[in-house]
Design goal:
three-stranded mixed sheet, 5% strand, mainly alpha
């Protein structure tokens, strides 16, 4: 699934702008309905106007649920927009620099994948799919078509990979993920288009970063699911929907954390991050 040049960005930005207005408007209605419901419940508890208090309470529930749902969607769209910064930059550069033409073939998915694929693309690295990035994060042996021991950077690449628990093989059959040095080739999972073997370190590092934040996302989603169920059982009403907004907030936070982890990479930073994960 590939992105289009600028339509997804403008459409997402327009939806986000509309949602901002809707969220603020709904919040005003929510607080008004809440205050009116509390006032009516205390004033009309023993009169025939109890139906008014009940109606205001329902309005409080509806506006509250709608507020948190819209906020959740707004945060997810914001995370998606933030995660595609590299896509937008490189598509503009591709118009004058053919080296980045492959950016049009890079797939898009959830924000954590987008920011990782974008970080790789900034260094001229093409990744075919979410599955390929996930699988590389698990690999204990990597190999690349076009690599050989006499290449510049071979020794430091092999040494650094060994420090993070990955073996560098000269036979592509030893690695389940297919990586090529040079141009993008059909049926390969990764292409290091700048033809630098040291960029293999970046592939492995960012794949592991992606795997880490994917697992964290799943754990947080499970935790929020338990929290939502618990609050439903306890009849906490509208506030159980507040838990859903944390999913969007977490995605935005993860995008920023991945950007930090994938930027200004050095051999020492790659080794240090691997030790922290261990």
């Amino acid at each position: 699934m590939s992105t289009q040049t600028s339509v997804p960005k403008s459409r997402s930005a327009a939806v986000a702008a509309w949602l901002r207005v809707a969220v603020f408007a709904d919040f005003a209605l929510f607080t008004t309905a809440t205050a009116a419901s509390v006032f009516a419940s205390s004033r009309f508890a023993s009169t025939q106007l109890q139906s008014l208090a009940h109606a205001l309470h329902i309005a409080h529930e509806l506006f509250g649920a709608l507020f948190f749902v819209m906020l959740f969607v707004y945060l997810l769209i914001s995370a998606d927009i933030a995660s595609k910064t590299a896509y937008r930059e490189l598509k503009l550069r591709a118009a004058v620099d053919p080296k980045f033409e492959f950016i049009h073939q890079v797939p898009t998915s959830i924000p954590t994948f987008n920011v990782c694929a974008g970080a790789l693309a900034r260094s001229g690295i093409y990744v075919r799919s979410v599955v390929a990035l996930t699988e590389l994060g698990r690999c204990k042996t990597v190999a690349a078509k076009g690599n050989y021991p006499q290449r510049e950077g071979y020794a430091i690449t092999a040494e650094t990979l060994a420090k993070i628990g990955v073996a560098l093989s000269d036979d592509v059959k030893d690695c389940t993920v297919k990586i090529t040095l040079g141009e993008v080739e059909p049926h390969f999972d990764f292409a290091i288009t700048q033809n630098k073997i040291t960029h293999l370190l970046k592939c492995v590092h960012i794949a592991r970063v992606y795997r880490k934040y994917s697992l964290l996302s799943v754990l947080i989603l499970l935790g929020l699911g338990v929290a939502f169920f618990t609050m439903t059982v306890l009849e906490w009403g509208v506030y159980r929907y507040a838990a859903t907004t944390l999913i969007g907030a977490v995605q935005i936070r993860f995008v920023r954390k991945i950007e930090d982890a994938a930027s200004k990479l050095t051999f020492a930073k790659i080794v240090g991050n691997a030790k922290l994960r261990a």
